## 1
Amino acid sequence: MAGERTVRLVERLRRVRGGDPWFDKRGLDTVRRRPVDDETIERRRRRQRYLGVAFVGLLVAAIWYPVLAGVGVVGCATAAVGVGAVRGRFYCNHLCPRGGLLDGYVRLFSRGKRTPDWFNHPLIRVVVAATAFGLLATGIRAAWRQGGSLGVPFLTMLAVSTLVAVGLGVVYHQRAWCQVCPAGTLSHAVHRIAEALGRDPAPRVEVDADACVDCGRCGTVCRQDINPGQYADREVTDHGDVFSWGGTEGATREADGVVDHGDCLQCSACVEECPTDALSFDAE
């Protein structure tokens, strides 16, 4: 039976690589050993929609009470960094209100395209973070001197960055902004530093090299433009990793079957998409 599934799978992959589109996934899906938990997926999406509504509510309320924007920005950034020390970018996928807006609503209008390689360069992150914090500091200083509300600079930054995030989400994929988000970058960097100091790494997706057939479907659903299958005991190129200064080409190294890219959101989308169950993720 297993031999027949393997034959069907190899034949299907041969046709796809020859130009046959993925219009019918049954040739791969029939070899799955475990079903996708649709209830868990829907529960996660429902939570993200609630977070998205809460985020929009915060923005609207902050127009009359700008201090709310300051509390929201500082609170979310602190939470992202705090959780990042223990769980990497777990906060970005599961708890971030703006992430909920992007996944819950912007996803419906997104073109679903990957961002250019240069967009993932660490230098782009530095420029975005420096610009955001520089403008915020300038705004706070001006508000302090003029006796205005210190919440206004936070509201301005939050509104402008959200417009940019939505625009990128529509042009590329819904989470394109998350690849350069200053709070996400800090979360990423703090976790790498915690690892270097001896703390256990965050839960990670693991790749079974024997089961992986390099179909690439996991990479098409990753919202951070990571290709998990590339980590199956072979050379891997880390695009966008804060500590991989490999230029637009990325940094190439040997992988050991663990997707240890610092921008992994731990969302399990790649695990759910894998047709051969080559990917696994233990959240504990």
Note: The two ends are 33 Å apart (CA to CA).
## 2
Amino acid sequence: MTKDQKIIRAKVGLLELAKQLGNVSQACKMMGYSRDSFYRFRELYETGGELALQELTRRKPLLANRTPPEVEAIILELTLEYPAYGQTRQTRIANEMRKRGHSVSPSGVRGVWQRHDLETMKKRLKALEAKVAKDGIVLTESQLAALEKAKLDKEAHGEFESECPGYCGGQDTFYVGNMKGVGRIYQQTFLDTYSKVAFAKLYDRKTPITAADLLNDRVVPFFDAHEVKLSRVLTDRGTEYCGNPEHHEYELYLAVEDVDHSRTKTKNPQTNGIVERFHKTVLDEFYRVAFRKKIYGSIEELQADLDEWVRSYNEQRPHQGRWCFGKTPMQTFLETAPLAKEKMIAA
């Protein structure tokens, strides 16, 4: 049965149902048509028979305003490369297109997504899975099931008052998941609240030692290399961050480095919302994509890809943070580092 035959059959069925019931309103409600449509169908049927009930040819769209096929192909390629760029972040795809020499508006990107049924992140992730399977990379059902069970972090609220790079850094623990053969994986995250420069390192446990290791291995050396002092760290009240100052490894490390320790309000995770929001970004843009493309056998393997993504986040990805103004976090840090040094001298 052709498409036109199905359309005609549905309309004739509406007319027959109304005749049997003796009630036009009830027939229209059951078939999903309006009464206006019913009377229009009946008039057409009475004057021209079933052939008059064919779908009228609609005016052809004005293709001159449509995105060129070659540009549309690049948009689709970028969409599968960055499936988490969506909703209000469709501007990011437009920015990537501009880097490649193509001027496309965010609404134009949205139009391409709608034509290819990619307008939601869920649909884009499914398309990515189909592409990966087609290319011969098959993911296990347990990995997909574990990925889909991941819950979204709560949306962060409010803004954090920060005066310069190093004024305060937010640190938090993010549970990545349970990897077969490895066990639970945790990510220690640090984010400079002014420039939004991020650091992340994976561990198989969450303890004061691992929390201090991130600072000792990556954060403090970075600030020292740029001659910027890290003045304060903001954390939640988890046991990996809080304890007896005389015995707790994390508290002792902060004391040695002369870094003040601020804690969030009880039952108010949004106090450290900058880091919470980063966790949502790394979940959507890295982990949900990486686990669909590759099967990891060790933390070191996953850490290597995470390091590459964090480098891109810091040095290539424009940030819409309060003090970034569309610049990358690293660009913001380097441009405002003199401000931090001036405040250190004044202090």
Note: The radius of gyration is 28 Å.
## 3
Amino acid sequence: MDWHPIQGVFLPSAQCFWNRLWIHCDPDLAKAVTESQSKTIDVKYAIYIALIRHENSTIHINFTAGKNDLEKPVHQIFKVENDLRDLNVNIFIRVPIKLGVKDIWTNNNLQIQGCNGDIVEQPTIPDFVAALQKQPEVNCSVAVCRVFKCAANLIRKQTKFYVISGNVSSGWIEQTGLRSAVFELVSTATLDYNKTAYIFFSSDSINTAPIGKINTQVEVYEEKLPLKETIGGVVGGLVLLALITAGLYKAGFFKSNYKKMLEEAGAGAEGPRGDAEALSQE
């Protein structure tokens, strides 16, 4: 027994059980259907393929504002799972590679194993600065994207992986005018399959394959200047010293020490004078 989605109108006389999207035919009951009762219907096989962000994908990197020669390693990994049946599909992976006149990745020849990356798409939003200041998402609407076509023969219950790997540069960030922000670097994956033979199984009524997304946060922040911290520490120390000095002065610490010093100086002066008088009397 097998279940198939259908299109068109099915006659109940065909000895099959059916509802809005699915039809199930019993082979034994079907034998009783005569040629005059049979009708031709369009049958589509249900498929379900998941495009998932792999857990080892890079979540977050950061750069210091104003430093345009930095780079950080980034890995974005799509996990493809096929649940229902064997089929051939094309998987299109779109990766932002350039923002304005600056490359996003240090490798100009970014590759994905098992895929052809000859296609380059231009952004649909020319003013990327205004767009990123409203929503800091670096995707194919604001950036030039390389499109990778991955022809896949998917076996039922099979899992495939597609890895985007390289170093992301800090050079493109300065163009945005933002010195403190968290950007989302977004790569996407979509499916292309024979829609006359297959229908994507989903819980909604649209029956369209979803778009897989991988987001990597790229943070830029202002560097704290050590000079300011040093000056602040010195000023704070001087203020503390002044407060301690004022407290000691109010407590009479300096007066008592000064009086003691005067007394010791007077006693020292009388000592030599007394000795001189004694010698003269002799």
Note: The chain has three domains: 3-43, 48-221, 227-267.
